[in-house]
Structures are given as structure tokens and as C-alpha cells.
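Re-run with default settings, no changes from the original entry. Doing this only to confirm the output is reproducible before filing.
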Amino acid sequence: MKLLKGLLSAALAVMLTAAPISVNASAFSIRTDLSFTAECGSGSSNFDSVEAAAIYVRDCIRNRDNTIKFSLPIRYDFEEAFHSIILQAVDETYSGSEGDYIKYVLKSIECKGGYDGVNYYYTINMNYYTNAEQERYVDRRVSEILSSLDLDGKDDYAKISAIYEYIINNVEYDYSDDESNKARFTAYGALYNGKAVCQGFSQLFYRMAKELGLSCRIISGTADGGHAWNIVAVDGIYYYVDTTWDIFNSDISDCDYFMRGSLDFDEADRTTPHIASGKDPKNFLITDFTSAEFKAAYPVSDYAYDAEKKQIGYVLGDVNSDGVVDSADASEILNGYAMISIYNYSGMTAAQELAADVDRSESIDSSDASAVLDYYGYVSTGGKLSLEEYNKKVK
């Protein structure tokens, strides 16, 4: 623990400012400025752990409390505890009004505090894009809209399609430059005014998806300037969706950025690729979407979802996605098998693992490689069956 020698009290000031989400602005930028003063607050709630304090802060954020006060024992480092509390407060839960939803409703945070030799005292001043009354409106409208869509008994793809079509048909992009119009950055603005920027679009999609029990995240980064979009899961595999860039369409069949994979998300216009934000040591609230941990937790398909086959867009046996099933794919499978044997990790994406499990044994091993080589020999002599059809024939 770092003690602030020579001071009877200490303060931490952290400002997090989210820039307007427009064509040429950052989707979610944070400026961190640490300074220490001799100002000391008092904690209205006392906690023995960071975890307990984080739950309290999350509840306060959900209530849109502007000032949050609490204390922790001085065995915790003041600054590190603050970072951990905020990160845990905005961590993913099953609730559509928590997780990324509250993360992207925060406009700025200022934290000050001190200690009395026993406890650290925190006073956190929150600035939000919405207030409690506006969030009650969102609660009511989301419930009404989802009820009107009649999604009971529908599969996940049907649910995603329904909310996606609702958003692109009912929300317009807000091209105004009115910095005082905070609603344009929110789901509230998208619902109440029928207008929002991409932060509001992605926040509304996230809220509706989570309310339907779908796993979803908001992704921020760049795409012809600062931008925000979503990933959403079907059967544990995630796909990219960008309601903002599909607002000039009205039907799923016409959408260019709906349920896409990592390799074809920008197929419609590769001059303006979606690039997710990476780690920024100055901005502790920005998720590193490029990290191995995030990719493992949220495996994104290589290709778009196949609505007809109800499966991810992969071809059985074509592990390297080059359009053919051959010895190169067998080598990829053997490499994955070796990795699993040594590290218990294949080194493949989720889609590659599905393509590599040729015999559908739910494991990747030498038998899959042998099956690929056997099929390659069949195709090389003029065989026309797909690998799936060939497997049924030889069984």
C-alpha cells in the first residue's frame, strides 16, 4: 500500500470525458489527471472490501446518484482500489441496465478523498448522459417495444433480427453538433427523440438484446472516425452488428453490417474498416478488445451467420478458410491437436475449431486430420460431394 507521507489526508482526482460520437470523434475517450490535495471527505457507507464497494457504486450509478460517498480500510491502495471499484461497477452482468450500458452512460467521473489513519474516504462526483427519470422512460419503452415484437418462443437469431430491424426503422442518425444535447449519446435519445449517434444506437441494441437474455457487448474504436458497434451471440459464437451503418436499409436481407464475422464485417466497404480499441494505459476504463482474454471470452465467427443453415459461416474441414479442403487443413488440425496436447488450447478461433472437428466428436485430434486427407484424395480424383455428404456416405 502506498502511504502519502507528510499528508494528513489525500485526494485523487480522475476525470473521464467521453467525446461526442460522430464521424470524426472518438467513441469513448478518457483523459486521466491524477493530483493529490489535502481535502478530506466523510464516508456515508463503510465497506471492508473493494467488491462490496463496487456493488454499492454500481447501484448508485443505476440510480444516477450524482455524489457517492463511502470508505475502505487503509490496507487498500487508494488509487488502485478506486480503479478496481469503477471497473467492477461497470463489469458485465445479466442485466441490460448494467455492464456496458452504464459504462457508456458515464460522461465524467471525479473522485476525491482522504484518510484518517484508519479508513480512506471516497467522494465520487458523477456526471451522466441521462438522469433517473429518463432511465425510467427507457425501462418502460424497452418493455413496451419488446412486448410488441411478439418474440416469445422465437430463437436467438429471430430475436436479434427483430430488434435490429426495429432500431434501423425507428431511429435516425443525429447529425447536429449541439454539444449540450447529451441525449444524442444514449438509448434514451434514440427512443424519446428518435435520434442518436452511434453510442446511442449501440447502447439501445445492447439494452434490448440483454433484456431478451442474449449475450451482447458494445465495441468502441474507429471506423472513418470514432465509432461504436456491437457483438451479439448465437449458440455461444459472436457476430458483429452495426445498426448505425444500416439505418438506410429497412429489412435484414438488405443490411450490410448485420451478423457479420471478423473476415467479412467490412465486406461492403473495406476502405473504412471497423477497428476495435486496444489497450490504452492512460484510459483504464477502455476495454482492450484486441486482447487474448477478450477474444477467448467473446469468440467471434470468422464469417457471417448463415440464416438458412442456422449456423456460423464456416465450411467443415476448411480450417484455413481458403475455399478448399486439402492437406493444408489437415496440417492445421494436427497443429491444433499438438497445441491441445501440450497447452490444452488449440490456438484456433471458435469457427476454426468447429471446422476442424470433422468427425463431430467434440474434440480435435489425428482422426480429424485423417478424415480430411481421405476426403482430399476423394476430391482429387473427381469427387463432387461436400465433406459432410462424404462423411455420411463412408460411415
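The longest strand covers residues 106-115. Strands lie at 67-73, 106-115, 119-128, 172-173, 195-196, 216-222, 226-234, 237-241, 275-276.
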